[in-house]
Write a structure and sequence with these properties.
It is globular, with a radius of gyration of 17 Å. It has 211 residues and is an alpha+beta fold. Helix 5 runs antiparallel to helix 6. The chain has six helices and 13 strands. The longest helix is centred in the last third of the chain and has 14 residues. The strands form three sheets. Strands 1-8-7-11-10-9-13 form a seven-stranded mixed barrel. Strands 6-5-12 form a three-stranded antiparallel beta sheet, with no helix packed on it. A hairpin with a 2-residue loop joins strand 9 and strand 10. Helix content is 26%, strand content 27%.
């Protein structure tokens, strides 16, 4: 059974070595937390151009991926370290696909896309090469839109429902990052799923240039 292992909220904090602030430093919280179509209540989104918005309102990361990273890095990694709002156990993160849904009590989330790591994430991890390392691992976590708003708290059961249509996993989407000439068949497959609106526009444009 899948379970909500942790609910994580970030407050504005300075970016190491840079001007500006970030909300990537998230820590687990207790008690009920509201989730609306705009995101998790109380969580800081400092760069609204690249973070937040209705098609990436909530970011999920998975306990099995954290276990993999703990083995890879040789140290325990606490929930929230990767900047996710919700840490979910009992589901294989690499197999999550666009359109998959997570239901927690009344809250319903739908996967829209993978997470593309940025320089702030590398600074958070204290490793300038971590972007490449994260990409190579193919364990990006998943951004979600909120289908039905609700309240949640750590420890609740999670109902995981696989998308019934054409499946494209978050790992497959991540592999397309930086690819100059992606396979048109993969782009078409992605467009059959409810992908993030920006990704949809990008893939449609790439297909139009090809044909």
């Amino acid at each position: 059974m899948a379970i909500l292992a942790s609910v994580n909220i970030g407050k504005p904090q300075p970016i190491p070595g840079k001007s500006g602030k970030t909300g990537i430093y998230k820590t687990p919280v207790e008690g009920d937390v509201a989730v609306t179509r705009e995101g998790v209540a109380g969580d800081a989104v400092m760069d609204s151009k690249h973070h937040g918005g209705r098609d990436q309102a909530v970011y999920l990361y998975f306990s099995d991926d954290y276990l993999w990273w703990s083995n890879e890095l040789g140290r325990e990694i606490a929930p929230g370290t990767f900047g996710e709002n919700l840490t979910i156990g009992g589901v294989e993160g690499r197999q999550i696909a666009v359109g998959d849904r997570f239901t927690i009590d009344k809250l319903v989330l739908e996967v829209t896309s993978h997470r593309t790591p940025c320089n702030v994430f590398a600074l958070r991890m204290g490793d300038p090469k971590f972007i490449r390392r994260f990409h190579k691992a193919g364990r990006p976590g998943a951004y979600c839109r909120v289908i039905t708003e609700g309240m949640l708290h750590a420890g609740q059961p999670v109902r995981y429902t696989r998308f019934a249509g054409e499946r494209i996993t978050v790992a497959e989407l991540m592999a397309l990052d930086g690819m100059r000439e992606p396979d048109p068949a993969i782009l078409r497959r992605a467009l059959l799923a409810p992908v993030h609106y920006k990704m949809r526009a990008d893939f449609e444009e790439k297909l139009a240039r090809l044909f």
